[in-house]
What we know:
The protein is of the alpha/beta class. Helix content is 37%, strand content 19%.
Amino acid sequence: MPDAPLNLKTLVKSLYGVGHERAAQLHRLGIYTVEDLLYHRPRRYEDRRHFLSIADLTLDAPATVRGKVITMGLNTFARGRKSVFELVVDDGSARLHCRWWNLPFMQNYFKQGDDVMVYSKPNSLKPRTMDHPETEVIDPGEEVSIHLNRIVPIYPLTEGLPQRWIRSLIARNLEQFEPALIEPYPEASQVGYPDFSNALHMLHFPEEREDTDIARKRLALNELIALQQEIQGRRRRLELNAVSLPCAGDNHLIKPFLAQLGFKLTDGQTKVLREIRHDMGGEHPMRRLLQGDVGAGKTAVAACSALMTIESGYTVLLMAPTEILAEQHFRNFQRWFEPLKIPVEFQSGSRKSYFSHDRPCLIIGTHALVQDAFRQEMVGLVIIDEQHKFGVSQRESLVRKGKYPHLLVMTATPIPRTLGLTLYGDLDVSVIDQMPGNRGRIRTYVRTPDKLKQVLAFLLEKLTEGRQAYIVYPRVEEDESEKEVKAVKGEFNKLALSLAPFKAGLLHGRLSSEDKDKVMTDFRENKLQCLVATSVIEVGVDVPNATVMVIENAEQFGLAQLHQLRGRIGRGAHDSHCILLARLKTDEAKQRMKVMEETTDGFRIAEADLELRGPGDLLGRTQSGLPPFKFANLIQDLPLVELARQLAAQRLKAK
Length: 655
């Protein structure tokens, strides 16, 4: 029986020259099929049309040289526990010493007389030396045009896999499969990008440096169009299958609510409420993302949206990521809705209510609202607070609780536009772009840990003036492996003594719900003047009299998290002070602290966080629902995201 014809889904272990050991090495790189192989993206390129002579090397400047191995040897010391393998290469102009420390197996890769290429930065010129350079032995039997006299791709490798072997394998299979590659998105080549097969060729066989960027962008566009089709298809299916519940309301509850609120809504809040009312009276279920910086007044907007729904005869679900935030919402909404005779219920993992109302109500809870055991009839609106703390699947589970209810997703972590168009591409976006008046300024200071004594003196001064404070730590308990990182349990007793006669309370995620509630209630009522906590207070805690926040080991927190923590102060009329005690050992830590010191603008902070950490670390792959892109870069590819969105819409329209 003849072998099945090769195609892109063919397993690499079936390819010529790939035995069991090589297949295992490719698998470690995530390469299982021919398609994976052709998509194996070079991590950099070397221009091997012109080598630098060894004599012309300069200190700390990366360069590629070519020469012959004239001598080599392994020296061991410390009774054989340590070693250095040295290779000397000569190109006729000078000699280069290449050294590998504690990697004795490197001696197996070379022999005297080998023609080798070496790439790295010289760390000495007397003698000329490179430590741990990248090397490649040129085999005279191989096709030189793949490895020399061109711009050569340098691929990610795994132990035991030579660069020239994988380069030859990719070149061989690209030549075989290129003519048969199917163009997945012809519209991309109609807007000035190369076709798919040409882009793959340019990726692995660029003629000029610019080709590599053009190829990456075309292949990134493929990934982004596929994602946008999925996102827009989801929205389209909703609009085709779902009839909107009429939840625009008639103002009979909103008017008395606004009258009792005690403050006037900002123009930004009013504009957003008009958008929400329009959606909830439209023909399709609302799917809206509400962005507003910390303290911008999203909760009041959520309350008005809930009242529109209740006015229309439907129940509202509000889900928060933590019990502390859910409890705070419960207290706020009870205070707001009780005078209007609207029932407000609570549902969490530790506290389950079994209730039944013959009229619409508001049910506030945590992840418990997503569980199968929780059922509720006549759900008209689902509100999700701090959406970035939940996964996409949890969002979908919650809106299945009713018959296509409206959805309002809220976040105080501003989302860079590229992430907004990918992560939340199926949602319409509203932004509250102004802060309520009568708020004091927030000043931020970065200090080194040795200034703790002065910081505590300043904090005591503010407590004496009648204010309250937070002191935040990155850990609950100390870790022996990282003694420099402080923990809330280890520091609490020392602080309680230092802050006397003022009273301090301890708050962290491992306390029982009852203990958390007691501490938060005492802090709100000023029975405690200082809250010593972990980042469990990051979202939702609102005590206007708290005007000082000290964050120890601030370098351990991400930018978005620091911004959220800082948002717990500055909620009243007094000026507030955020003091970041940080060990600035890395450039990234210095950059993060500099951003925090310079701005309180959440959107600028979010852009900086995306740039410093990237979307994978920022969101977590499983939480975000984003695919693992090989070519798309959400930090720099906003124009491509917008183009992909447009092309995906055209494709769906043409179906």
